[in-house]
């Protein structure tokens, strides 16, 4: 429960940053510049976090007698990996800036290299605590980092230094948490001797995770990079001067990032399902219980679909009102992107659950391959559609459409794999009833006036209740579903204990 609480706090503080930064910056171009910088860096840091925590936790927990040496090895490996990545980012910053047609990115990327290195070491510390089952200490450390990061980013922006101040504040927070984490795990104290783990085993375990996570995070975040590059090209090809063109592109990115903030909500809500599904599928397949695996997959996918549409449909229907909840009036142009993207992210969230089931069944390379195809689709679709759309609101809709196409491809391919391997997916009857519920939810939210933040909340509630009502009336959602959720939750809780 402590880790779940820390995760919830992390999500809330992340949203606080995304919602408050535009108001502190004052100009959408600064928010776009910050977002373009950190979205690219986030692909690296998210990969480091997941792969490192899982690997260090695994090797620390395998044999308590060599927990100390596993930690020291993990820190050395991460110092090397993080150092190489950070140095590569620092030295290549001018090249990356030229690639993105924005020289302003150079100092931002160089400062952000501190974040990359810090994340590598921090993840090793967290993995050590996780492997030793010190979950309370891990939660406190994560919560401390969330607080430092929020204060650092917002405080840096508030100094009047724009995107540069926000990135610098992030870097200071990241460097600070490394020092704190090393103290908390007792780094520097004499550890128990033990047999070293072969480096090849470390890398062999981490490599597939790196591959999958790069693709997974790329699907979520690469569209910002493509949009920025393409929008800058379009602006420069017109009558605009260099800096004016760059500023317009950054402004466009800022509006799109604002839409992403709310579009990602369904994914954040459903991602916990993956932590439940993976061990259940792994256990069922390891003992040859295909029926249990099939049942778990079908329940997880079906319930995920229903829960996602209960959130996505009202959000899409009242997209403009949702943007009014947190952003200045000029950001409302991003509502058209939100209207499309929230359904794309819902598809991506379903894919994440399906990919977890595929990995749990012993086929992680298949999940990684699907993610790679989807990533390529997102890049190509965004490039083609944004180039055709030109600048303005249409470019935002184009980016949202391109990203949603790639996410839908990921879902379709994962559905095909699950059908082939287990002969099960979401029943057609569920899809039809869910579509009817989504239409009702969208229609009710769209028809309800949402010209103010208060009315937006009313519209969202109306859409949610309309969609829920259809699911209940069609008997798609019944008492057995709630009982299934409770059974899954109990199993998850027991496994964590």
How many structural domains in the coordinates? 2
Helix content: over 70%
User: How would you sum up the global shape?
Assistant: globular
Q: Between the first and last Cα atoms, what is the distance in angstroms?
A: 10 Å
Low-confidence stretches: 491-497
Task: Report the order of strands and helices.
Answer: HHHHHHHHHHHHHHHHH
Determine the strand fraction and express it as a percent band: under 5%
Rounded to an integer in angstroms, the radius of gyration calculated over CA atoms is 23 Å
Summed up, the helix count is 17
Summed over residues and divided by their number, the pLDDT gives a mean of 87
Largest sheet: none
Structural classification: mainly alpha
Topology (elements, then pairings):
Elements lengths: L1 H24 L2 H35 L4 H33 L5 H27 L3 H50 L14 H39 L4 H22 L1 H6 L1 H15 L3 H28 L1 H6 L10 H26 L3 H26 L3 H30 L5 H20 L5 H21 L5 H18 L1
Commentary on this structure:
The protein is an all-alpha fold and 497 residues long. The protein has two domains: 1-197, no CATH class; 221-497, no CATH class. The protein contains 17 helices and no strands. The protein has helices at 2-25, 28-62, 67-99, 105-131, 135-184, 199-237, 242-263, 265-270, 272-286, 290-317, 319-324, 335-360, 364-389, 393-422, 428-447, 453-473, 479-496.
How would you describe this structure in keywords?
2 domains, single chain, 497 residues, globular, disordered C terminus
